[in-house]
Design brief:
With 614 residues, the chain is α/β, with parallel strands linked by helices. The protein is built from 21 helices and 19 strands. It has five domains: 8-96, no CATH class; 109-158 and 194-264, no CATH class; 286-461, Isoleucyl-tRNA Synthetase, Domain 1, CATH 1.10.730; 465-541, Valyl-trna Synthetase, Chain: A, domain 4 (2-Layer Sandwich), CATH 3.30.1170.10; 551-613, Valyl-tRNA synthetase, C-terminal domain (Helix Hairpins, Orthogonal Bundle), CATH 1.10.287.380. The protein is 46% helix and 11% strand. α12 packs antiparallel against α13 and α12 (353-374) packs across α16 (463-486). The N and C termini lie far apart (89 Å). 27% of the residues are buried.
Length: 614
């Protein structure tokens, strides 16, 4: 087997006097180029030669210089076979090797890494999450030599040519696009290009500036956009790519290539294993896009991106993204259906509590999402934006605004159009396609990507309106709970009575509460049996008489009570069994305890309901 003396695989075994494994099933071998003086047919080591030679029990170490230029000499190598295969570690046998001379190719690694290392240590180049700063520093302080040529079919072919005597020819620095075969200085010389390609990571370390027109230092793109700002990549190629881009940038341009590096985790399969072609556990993103849309996939991955942790593939997250895009689309359709001239921005001092509440909450959402994006926390930005748009804007505000919009309320129309405009700009980094389409539908001539980023307006933050609307939300939620408990059909408007110190406040906003909860509010305490819901300073009662078939309702609740008691008793018996508690997985035991708590709570509530009916 042939290995590079500079490779980490060799140095990690202990350096020149280290040991390398020899499996009992025989030496794994690799055919590789070798100098003719080492023997072998046509300058090659064959597997047979290596295994049957005088040093069959040892590794012959050889390596090839970059670009095969004869200006670099092959190192003299020999194997120390005096020691028998007498070392054993982890069931594998080892043999010693000694390298007499080692050829160093390229610049000194400490010198190459000095400037990037200084920028990282000073904080000029920042890593997110911060814990990877130490990893980057450790790598730059301990650079290892690296063979940059590869024998592959595809890649960036090495730009070096050779004549019959082995002299090397490369493009001139002043005209790097001129190949030696086209250079008139070398007319009449038969040149052959090096058949090897650059290692992928060597080619790609030029990416930050080669994509902007380098080596033309006057290129307008290079002058405008370099150095770049944020590099987004996986933590697994911090050493392969990030560090090498830093070194190449300092070498060729004397500047850092970027000021911030955002490192994300790997997308693993559902079982937490790394995806690979050999395992057949990969996911084709194009197929996912065909099924759910590009925005849904982008949404799912950004939502799961937290602190550089690996992500387990979960298609339900993509479904969630598709549902969110559908929700946003339908909300925009509803807004665009409203008639009237919306004007620019919201009208100040809206008499509608829902308008004032939404505008206040919108400012907080803008501030929080912007902060998360500034901190490069894409997962937090996704969740904050999702919660505001789905719950507060769509589920609460649009429902509350339907009645004022039907009446042509200018405040509501201006508020809903302004809120949608801001929401689309806020969501654009996370879901670019659907937001671009809807932003154009609002009548904008420019692309949403070119629109100014939303800024929070402190004048619109209204804590009093937020507190008042939260009371409305609590009342609506309680009233909906009573309707559900009474098993009323959605089309039926229920009569709900309110009593207590906070009753007047709820009645003040009855125009908002009644359509949201589909109830008719009454003040006071009704006679007869009623279902009861309690808030801190007010009690809600839904009388059964005249609204519910009491006998049939009571029969259904008694049946539910029997089932709840039976479920609770079954869980108690399981948890009383020591064998189950000690032998079952912890999560199974915890789930059983949760079921017991739920069954007991349901039974207690049904007992109260039946007592009220009686």
């Amino acid at each position: 087997m042939a290995v590079f003396p500079h490779s980490y695989a060799v140095s990690s075994t202990g350096g020149p006097d280290g040991v390398v494994p020899v499996e009992s099933k025989g030496l794994p071998t690799l055919e590789t180029t070798a100098p003719p003086e080492f023997g072998g047919p046509e300058g090659y080591w064959s597997p047979e030669t290596m295994l049957t030679g005088a040093v069959a029990n040892c590794f012959i170490l050889t390596f090839r210089a970059l670009a095969r230029t004869r200006k670099l000499e092959w190192s003299s190598l020999k194997a120390d076979c005096a020691g028998e295969l007498d070392k054993t570690r982890d069931g594998l046998k080892f043999t010693k090797f000694v390298i007499d001379a080692v050829l160093t190719i390229g610049r000194d690694t400490d010198e190459a890494a000095a400037k990037p290392l200084k920028r990282v240590e000073s904080g000029e180049t920042r890593f997110v999450p911060e814990r990877y700063t130490k990893v980057a520093i450790d790598w730059l302080r301990n650079l290892r030599h690296w063979c940059i040529s590869r024998q592959l079919w595809w890649g960036h072919r090495i730009p070096a040519w050779y004549d019959a005597d082995g002299n090397v020819y490369v493009p001139p620095l002043e005209d790097p696009m001129l190949d030696p075969t086209d250079d008139p200085r070398y007319a009449g010389i038969e040149l052959t290009q090096d058949p090897d390609v650059f290692d992928t990571w060597f080619s790609s370390n030029l990416w930050p500036f080669s994509t902007l027109g380098w080596p033309d230092l006057a290129d307008p793109f290079l002058r405008k956009f370099y150095p770049t700002s944020v590099l987004v990549t996986g933590y697994d190629i911090l050493s392969f790519w990030v560090a090498r881009m830093q070194i190449a940038a300092e070498e060729f341009l004397g500047e850092r290539p970027f000021d911030t590096v955002l490192l994300h985790g790997l997308v693993l399969d559902a079982k937490g294993q790394k995806m690979s072609k050999s395992k057949g556990n990969g996911v084709d993103p194009l197929e996912v896009v065909d099924r759910y849309g590009a925005d849904a996939l982008r949404f799912a991955l950004s939502r799961a991106s937290t602190g550089g942790q690996d992500i387990r593939w979960d298609e339900r997250q993509v479904e969630m993204g598709r549902n969110f895009a559908t929700k946003l689309w339908n909300a925009a359709r509803f807004v665009l259906m409203q008639e009237g001239e919306p004007g620019e921005g919201p009208l100040a001092g809206s008499p509608n509590l829902a308008d004032r509440w939404l505008l206040s909450r919108l400012q907080r959402a803008v501030r929080e999402v912007t902060r998360a994006l500034d901190e490069l926390d894409l997962g937090a930005a996704n969740r904050l934006a999702y919660d505001f748009v789905w719950s507060e804007f769509c589920d609460w505000y649009l429902e509350a605004a339907k009645a004022p919009l039907r009446e042509g309320d200018a405040h509501a129309l201006r508020t809903v159009r302004h809120a949608l405009d801001v929401v689309l700009r806020l969501l654009h980094p996370l879901m670019p396609f659907v937001t671009s389409e809807l932003y154009a539908a609002l009548g904008h001539d420019e692309q949403v990507a070119l629109a100014p980023w939303p800024e929070a307006d402190d004048a619109l933050v209204d804590p009093e309106s937020e507190a008042a609307f939260e009371r409305v939300q609590a009342a609506v939620t309680a009233a909906r709970g009573l309707r559900s408990e009474a098993e009323l059909p959605p089309s039926q408007t229920a009569e709900v009575w309110v009593a207590g110190p906070g009753a007047a406040s709820l009645l003040e906003h009855r125009a908002l509460i009644e359509p949201l909860a589909r109830v008719a509010l009454r003040e006071g305490t009704p006679e007869g049996s009623a279902l009861v819901g309690a808030l801190p300073d007010v009690e809600l009662r839904l009388p059964l008489a005249g609204q519910v078939d009491v006998a049939a309702y009571a029969a259904r609740q008694r049946k539910r009570l029997e089932q709840a008691r039976a479920d609770a008793e079954r869980s108690r018996r399981k948890l009383a069994n020591e064998g189950f508690v000690k032998g079952a997985p912890a999560e199974v035991v915890a789930e059983e305890r949760r079921r017991l708590e739920e069954a007991e709570a349901l039974a207690a509530r049904l007992e109260r309901v039946l007592a009220d009916i009686a």
